[in-house]
């Protein structure tokens, strides 16, 4: 009579310590930050911890600066990601059809994505300098005055959006091009035989087949866009005033300039709630759109 083989307990002995370590590293900072968010803790000047309940959250929600940072973040993220997707998809379609020099373009288009955001922001700050920048020098050739790219709220936000588009459109190009190359060629050959126009092939075949990938690409870019801080910090510093201050920069200023740790922790959790709410609504709407095209 054969015996049922005993489970190999040795592998669990090796896996469990690593799992416990990762769990501790992940959960401990999160739980500690949650506890701190209900306290008043200042490093400079030193203030002993004091439990204040939801006072930190109430103060943040009553702050006009908090709602202004949400508005700035939303404008930068949604406008830049929308344009990144449109431009990235268009460039991917162009490269997919093997235009002359496509190999060179593929390499050159990906270069901005590999640069550090801080270095990109430093370069952009020199390019868009209100007086000495080459962009304004170019405009003066046509008799135009220097534009306040970094000193006007509307121009500063537009400059940040432009930098984001330049750096992260290659990410969209890379993923959408990979998706295009994975589509079945037989379907498009049959459409060409039936004399279906290029626009209808895109509308009825390419776009619906790449819709799940498009949803994933936009979702990744939006979530990453919400975390923008380095570009804003170097390029505008949140100014003029607080007109370009994002949520992450707001949290940075509270934590590392005012040393208000309790307020910063509460702000971080409110930021997490905003991202979770957006992600839930976005994925629900995306699922309905995908089902409609299936």
What's the short version?
This is Multiple sugar transport system permease protein. The chain has helices spanning 9-36, 55-61, 64-96, 102-110, 117-127, 134-140, 153-181, 185-193, 198-226, 230-235, 247-256, 261-293, and strands at residues 39-42, 47-51.
Write up what this structure looks like:
By secondary structure, this protein is mainly α. The chain has a single domain, classed as Orthogonal Bundle (MetI-like fold). Helix content is 72%, strand content 3%. It contains twelve helices and two strands, in the order αββααααααααααα. The protein has a two-stranded antiparallel ribbon with strand order 1-2. Helix 3 runs parallel beside helix 7 and helix 9 packs antiparallel against helix 12. The longest helix is centred in the first third of the chain and has 33 residues. It is globular, with a radius of gyration of 25 Å.
Topology, pairings included?
Layout: H1 9-36, E1 39-42, E2 47-51, H2 55-61, H3 64-96, H4 102-110, H5 117-127, H6 134-140, H7 153-181, H8 185-193, H9 198-226, H10 230-235, H11 247-256, H12 261-293
CATH class: Mainly Alpha
Proportion of helical residues: over 70%
Total DSSP E strands: 2
Taken as a percent bin, the fraction of beta residues is under 5%
Mean pLDDT score: 88
What is the third-level CATH name, the topology?
A: MetI-like fold
Q: Count of helices?
A: 12
Using only C-alpha atoms, the radius of gyration works out to 25 Å
Structural class category: mainly alpha
CA-based shape: globular
Write the CATH architecture name. Answer: Orthogonal Bundle
Order the strands across the largest sheet as they lie in space. Answer: 1-2
- Low-pLDDT stretches: none
Distance between the termini: 53 Å
Give me the CATH superfamily.
MetI-like
Supply the number of structural domains. 1
Transmembrane segments: 12-35, 70-95, 107-128, 165-184, 205-223, 266-285
GO biological process, one term: transmembrane transport
Domain ABC transmembrane type-1: 70-282
Family: Belongs to the binding-protein-dependent transport system permease family.
